[in-house]
Write a structure and sequence with these properties.
Elements: H1 3-15, H2 20-31, H3 36-48, E1 56-58, E2 67-69, H4 84-98, H5 101-119, H6 126-139, E3 143-149, E4 152-159, H7 163-168, H8 171-184, E5 189-192, E6 201-206
Antiparallel strand pairs: 1-2, 3-4, 4-6, 5-6
Helix pairs in contact: 1-2, 5-8
């Protein structure tokens, strides 16, 4: 990323919100003199990238011109280093050490059920629900596609958003299957699994119609 824009993201991360003038002042301390026009230009680019939110008005305690402040979007969190995979893997490993297998399974099923609840599935024919599920998976970090075969719809997942964790805790794959079955209202059949050494994860969804 361009260095000035990287500094702006770091400043907003530290301050939570800042005006143009405050950003100019903070940048001047970091990289030397910079103009408000240049800062606005960089902010517009960051907004276009979905990393900075539209400016909002800061409440003032005294009369005067309104102050507009900028802040980061939720998407900007992905820009900063994190260790979500390590945390998830550690939590699952500790759960498996301290809890019975059946309890761990129920917890993962509960996670899948909560994802279904939040998905807010629309009413409609099977093909509508199928397309909605595909869109939901893609928004959730899966690289997924569907095609028809003679037995229904074949769902193929190339990338799983928690593949590294699942390689150590394959129980997560059962969570995926429960998620699909609860969203679609049909029993699915898992044909292949990456944690088992296959190239992709595939599920057969019987009596469903999908578009290429």
């Amino acid at each position: 990323m361009q260095p000035t824009r990287r500094h702006i993201l770091e400043i907003l991360k530290e301050r939570k919100e800042a005006t143009i003038d405050e950003i100019v002042q903070a940048l001047t301390q970091r990289i030397g003199k910079i103009t408000a026009v240049t800062v606005r230009h960089h902010l517009e680019i960051l907004r276009g990238d979905g990393l900075v939110a539209a400016p909002t008005v800061r409440r003032r305690s005294a009369p005067g011109r309104p102050q507009y402040v900028y802040s980061l979007t939720e998407r900007a969190a992905d820009y900063f280093p994190n260790n979500y995979q390590g945390l998830a893997a550690g939590l699952l490993a500790e759960m498996k050490k301290q809890l019975p297998h059946e309890t761990v399974t129920r917890i993962l099923q509960g996670v899948a059920d909560e994802m279904v609840r939040r998905a807010a599935l629309p009413d409609g024919p099977p093909e509508v629900r199928l397309q909605y599920v595909l869109d939901f998976l893609q928004r959730s970090g899966y690289t997924a596609s569907m095609r028809r075969n003679g037995h229904g719809a074949l769902l193929t997942i190339v990338n799983c958003p928690y593949e590294q964790v699942a390689s150590q805790s394959p129980e997560l794959c059962t969570m995926d299957q429960r998620l699909l079955e609860n969203m679609l209202g049909v029993r699915t059949r898992r044909l292949s699994c990456q944690t088992c050494g296959d190239d992709v994860c595939q599920y057969l969804i019987p009596e469903a119609k999908a578009e290429e």
